[in-house]
Amino acid sequence: MAIQRPRGVNDLLPPFSGKWRAVEALFHEMCAEYGFKEIRTPLFEDTDLFKRGVGENTDIVQKEMYTFEDQGQRSLTLRPEFTASLCRAYIENKMHGLPQPQKLYCLGPLFRYERPQAGRFRQFHQFDIEIIGTISPLADAECIVFCWDFYNRLNLRDLTLRLNSVGCPACRSVYRLALQEYLRPAIAKLCPNCQGRFERAPLRILDCKCEICRAAAIGAPAIVDYLCAECSEHYHMVQEILQACAIPYTADSSLARGLDYYTKTVFEICALGLGAQNAVCGGGRYDGLIEIIGGAPTPAMGVALGMERMLTALAAQNEDIDVEEGIDAFIATDFNDASTVLAAFALASSLRSSGVLTAMDYEVKSLKSQLKTANRLQAAYVVILGRPEVSAGIAQIKNMVSGEQSEIELKQVRRYLLEH
């Protein structure tokens, strides 16, 4: 019996891989425009990084991490998210000594043991941007604007931006007590997850997708009514900036996000076509995280954008990603003559080294069959190099669109293709 891939992971095959690469290229391009610099962190980290950074009480740490012991009996975990890893790198590499803020981005695979469903897998991929070293609400707004701009460039429609503030530890502790008092009579009716959250993370009950829990939270006090003066001013400034940028949003006091490290601003952007799990990105401010994992107190803001969910939403909206397919040149040769094949292969290598996308067959095929291959590969030109052409130092070049065929000196083929 053939071995199959594990549940919850996918093979990325062409031509879909080309669309994936085009989205990554756009992300790299936009990060350069916005002034973010790339950082790459390990696929696995010390398990304590995520226990301390993400939070002992989160579903990620309690249920979803891929944790193992290596041969040195060290507990390691495949990264379930980027922010904790990035903050560890910021501390370890003394990036606080560089000009602040540091605007960083990364992309790649993450790992969580979850029930696979639409847009959610056990190995999934995210883009991540972080602004570390500033408390300014401008940083919050810039992360949100970046995401909105990114999705607009991809023609992802029907977006909704949910915005909230979860305050700072001081004002959130007051709100936490008020929320628990409101929900206490309904504890027995809550889903098992939210019953467990009541003491350790009551704000997450507000964000539960279970209808019973959503009903129990109707009329609950709103956290914005408990914000301290600083948090309230910060929240209103973020809203004013978004309004100035003409980005529509919904102030949603039920939005809590699923991680313990968030402070002040939290947000999600959702799209049609994903069912209940409809967020394509989410993030927020985490002013205490770097201190929690051993650094100096450092304010920061970040957001993660899910690749699979975004592509699922685009497909649901019948939006395609434009990918340039085809090659520049196909070399057709006489496979019955070894010296001619060598000359054709050498020409292909020369063209490729000059940036000309070039292909040729490997097995013995007729000219007619090779032209069919060129058509399948969407070659712009076919360079016909048989024994007579090699002997005369020429090549026949056929324009596959017009059908026009020209005779070119062999040493001029590269220049001809580069100019056309």
Topology, number of strands: 16
The largest sheet has its strands arranged as 1-5-6-11-10-9-7-8
Strand content: 15-25%
Fraction of residues in helix = 25-40%
In short:
With about 425 residues, this protein is an alpha+beta fold.
Give structural notes.
With 420 residues, the chain is an alpha+beta fold. It has 15 helices and 16 strands. It has helices at residues 16-34, 47-53, 59-64, 83-92, 137-153, 169-183, 192-200, 211-217, 229-244, 289-292, 307-316, 338-353, 367-376, 387-392, 413-419, and strands at residues 37-38, 44-46, 67-69, 75-78, 102-111, 123-132, 159-165, 250-251, 263-271, 279-285, 300-306, 327-333, 358-360, 379-385, 394-399, 405-409. The strands form 3 sheets. It has an 8-stranded mixed beta sheet with strand order 1-5-6-11-10-9-7-8. Strands 13-12-14-15-16 form a 5-stranded mixed beta sheet, with helices on both faces. A 3-stranded antiparallel beta sheet has the order 2-4-3. Strand 9 (263-271) and strand 10 (279-285) form a beta hairpin. Helix 5 packs parallel to helix 9 (229-244).
List the defining traits of the structure above.
420 residues; alpha+beta; eight-stranded mixed beta sheet; five-stranded mixed beta sheet; 15 helices; 38% helix
